[in-house]
Amino acid sequence: MDLIQNSIEAGSSHIQLNMNQSADSLEVSIRDDGCGMTDDELKRATDPFYTDGIKHKHRKVGLGLPFLIQTVTMTDGQFDIRSEKNKGTEIDIRFNLANIDTPPTGHIVSLLYQVLCFQGDYDLTAVRSLSKDGGELSYQVNRNEMLDVLGDLESAASLGLLRDFINSQEEDLLS
Length: 175
Hints:
This protein has helices at 2-9, 39-45, 64-74, 108-117, 143-150, 156-174; strands at 14-21, 25-32, 78-84, 88-96, 123-132, 135-142. Helix content is 36%, strand content 29%. Helix 4 (108-117) packs antiparallel against helix 6. It contains 6 helices and 6 strands. The protein has a 6-stranded mixed sheet with strand order 3-4-2-1-5-6. The longest helix has 19 residues, at 156-174. The protein has one domain (2-174): Heat Shock Protein 90 (2-Layer Sandwich), CATH 3.30.565. It is α+β, with helices and mostly antiparallel strands.
């Protein structure tokens, strides 16, 4: 969720989120067309003892990416981040679900609901897929399409319909 929020705050007009789950792994990729980072900025973003002091004025450290990298590497997963100034950032994460120390995946419906409802002028396409029984099932949710259908992502009625839609897609995927 924090990575999507970072993409929005970086001025992205489109964010692509892919979550591919199998019995032993969860692969997550995030692509954005935001402001991107230089090599030096990228190095600092993964340093737990650095913060730019802009986003969180009272913090002396920036732990988001460093904690993620630590969790992934300590549980035999993989992490890769690439960024180019004025072009965007790409992040690839592979969680090893077979490792006993890997944190639980959490509630996917709530995650998608929240990232679709962040404030801002951006589009987000989320693709969720599950490999099981020798095949792959998936669904896709697009923020702009949801806005077109629902009219907004602020009223209680629209938010309820959005949650119901995502929940129905996830239930179909898991059944």
